[in-house]
Design brief:
This protein is of the alpha+beta class. Helices cover about 40% and strands about 25% of the residues. It contains 9 helices and 11 strands.
Length: about 230
């Protein structure tokens, strides 16, 4: 991750939440944004910590997960560059229900609750965009529940691989996919054990659909993979 200071107004202007702000409004938000750098493996916050705003990932990757007394965890979401998180908890005025850990060296911006409330008071459209963003996050979580309840383990893995492709795997032919994080994290995200994920990769490779080399996956035929059912 490069060490120069990011162009905060430019970064914020590319987020759907802030795209329609007037320049002076964007400048107010940018002036109040605070940079935070976290190293790989470092905790951004723990479950139960108070929320005082929300975060935007500038570069890097953050894992949101539920801890477990048994020492394992359930990954809820993997947040990448130009994505935000923590908006809903900020408005609920409740502690974080999950912990956040950097999967790689990560640069974030923290936007305080006071700044957001001020923008909502001065611009109703800002409130609508924030509500829309939170509604999309909720819709995604509902889709996750549907996936875990109704799809087989193999279907979850195939669906995940297709999501990593450009345009969510539309089209046909071969495609190279770089897994964004470790297989252990991906397995937890898909509600699988690492052993099950490895077995499915092995079975898909044995069927000639993919080749696995570390985090690099070669999909030999997108159409065949979409239609395949173990």
């Amino acid at each position: 991750m490069r060490d120069h200071r990011p162009d905060i107004p430019e970064i914020l202007s590319r987020l759907p939440l802030f795209q329609q702000l007037a320049p002076e409004q964007l400048a107010q938000v940018a002036a109040a944004a605070r940079e935070r750098r976290v190293a790989k493996g470092e905790m951004l916050f723990n479950k139960g910590d108070p929320s005082k705003g929300f975060f935007v990932v500038v570069a890097g990757q953050v894992k949101l997960a539920f801890p477990s007394t048994q020492g394992n965890e359930k990954v809820v979401e993997i947040i990448g560059a130009r994505q935000s998180f923590g908006e809903a908890v900020m408005f609920l005025d409740r502690p974080y229900p999950v912990f956040a850990e950097a999967l790689v060296d990560t640069l974030l911006l923290h936007i305080s609750r006071d700044v957001v409330v001020a923008q909502i008071g001065s611009d109703p459209l800002f409130a609508q965009r924030m509500l829309a963003g939170m509604a999309m996050r909720l819709h995604s979580l509902i889709q996750d529940v549907e996936t875990y309840s109704l799809r087989s383990s193999a279907q979850r893995v195939i669906g995940y691989l297709l999501q990593q492709c450009p345009h969510n795997g539309d089209g046909c032919g071969a495609q190279e996919v770089a897994l964004p994080t470790s297989k252990q994290v991906i397995a937890s995200r898909l509600n699988l054990t690492p052993e099950t994920l490895s077995r499915i990769f092995h079975d898909l490779a044995g069927s000639g659909l993919i080749t696995v080399q570390g985090k690099q996956i070669t999909i030999h035929d997108l159409q065949r993979l979409r239609e395949f059912d173990l």
